[in-house]
TrEMBL record:
Pfam annotation, one family: Branch
Name of the protein: Glycosyl transferase, family 14
Localization per Swiss-Prot or TrEMBL: Membrane
Primary localization: membrane
Species of origin: Artemisia annua (Sweet wormwood)
Membrane-spanning segments: 12-30
Keyword line: Glycoprotein, Glycosyltransferase, Membrane, Transferase, Transmembrane, Transmembrane helix
Membrane topology: Single-pass type II membrane protein
Molecular function per GO: glycosyltransferase activity
GO cellular component terms given for this protein: membrane
Length: 359
């Protein structure tokens, strides 16, 4: 009886071994053979909510004056885009409070609704009313474009004196004082008429037309998927983070044509970074002469990992690093830098007054 059972079960042993040997190979090959999972889309209800917001933001309101009075000064709107805690909030508080006048800036935060940042700094700028109505975001998807557009729309509606709009990441730090940054942006002739002064400002956004990966990025949604709205010759790459003028903010929020292309599902996620393509492509098509083609946010891509830029850690934080990160080959020095690990806060705070904000 025993011999019979043993003989009957013998063929199962090679089959079991074969399955054990094949399974790891299947797990390895599956991502390369099977179609990639679809990125979480911007849902239809979200589209409707955004469209209502964007229409309000781009509709002129005769009751609101751009300048209010001849002595009104333009402001900078800081747009914080985060999906976790605002780890560097204490450092940003020093940046903002270092200004002699808190009437020269506004702060807006788009936070992942499932992760509420714990910011409790008495008298600080990150108050509850600074958090706008937000939606969840996902890396490498059009949800990041939508979040930035919501921030722009909220800032446009909130204050007609917001003239520049600076997008900031949760892992971004300032490299100069607020006063230094403000003066670098507003270098217009003080004798000019205020209304005309706004026309000369340019957006600080990286715009790249030649790159070894640009064709792969263009075809990430499929060959010819971007046509006819965006030809390959007009497609651009650039940094996700920028400082944009009010007139360009209005262009971005009013756009419908390019948005319907960049919101499409990507067939090759490894080549798809919509937030790095949409803004430079749109502004390059609409007003190339109104852009500097470089960003004020320093990012180190020399040691990038899986599409992420180099991350700095506490043992690297030093006065020398701050001075190095400020250096730029362009007209303006870098004003911000990313990305820093959350535990860099302590060494950064220790040298905030003597190094970072001592311009």
């Amino acid at each position: 009886m025993t011999s019979s059972l043993t003989t009957a079960n013998t063929p199962l042993i090679p089959i079991t071994i074969l399955i054990i040997l094949i399974l790891p190979g299947l797990f390895y090959l599956a991502p390369h053979i099977l179609p990639p999972p679809k990125s979480p889309p911007v849902t239809f209800p979200e589209e409707l909510q955004d469209l209502t917001l964007f229409r309000r933001a781009t509709t002129p309101d005769p009751r609101k004056s751009r300048l209010g009075s001849t002595n009104s000064k333009p402001k900078i709107a800081f747009l914080f885009l985060t999906n976790s805690d605002l780890h560097f909030a204490p450092l940003w508080e020093i940046f903002f409070n270092g200004s002699s006048s808190r009437s020269l800036f506004n702060v807006y935060v788009h936070a992942d609704p499932t992760v509420v940042p714990k910011v409790n700094i008495p008298g600080g700028v990150f108050t509850k009313d600074r958090f706008i109505a937000a939606k969840k975001t996902f890396r490498g998807t059009a949800t990041l474009i939508a979040a930035a557009r919501r921030l722009l729309a909220a800032a446009l509606l909130d204050d007609p004196l917001n003239e520049f709009f600076t997008l900031i990441s949760q892992q971004c730090i300032p490299l100069h004082s607020f006063g230094y940054f403000y003066n670098a942006l507003f270098e217009a002739d003080k004798h000019q008429v205020a209304e005309l002064r706004f026309l000369k400002y340019k957006s600080f956004i990286e715009i790249v037309s030649k790159d070894p990966y640009i064709l792969d990025r263009y075809n990430a949604r499929g060959e010819n998927a971007m046509l006819p709205e965006v030809t390959f010759e007009k497609f651009r790459m650039g940094s996700q983070f920028w400082t944009m003028t009010r007139r360009h903010a209005l262009v971005v929020v009013a756009d419908r044509k390019l948005w319907k292309k960049f919101r499409m599902h990507c067939l090759r996620p490894q080549s798809c970074y919509p937030e790095e393509h949409y803004f430079p492509t749109l502004l390059s098509m609409e007003d190339p002469d109104g852009c500097t083609s470089y960003t004020l946010t320093r990012v180190n891509w020399t040691d990038s990992v899986n599409g992420h830029p180099r991350t700095y850690y506490p043992n690297e934080v030093s006065p020398g690093l701050i001075h190095e990160l400020r250096r730029s080959n362009f007209t303006n020095s870098y004003m911000f830098a990313r990305k820093f690990s959350p535990d860099c806060l302590e060494p950064l705070m220790k040298m905030a007054y003597q190094v970072i904000f001592r311009d």
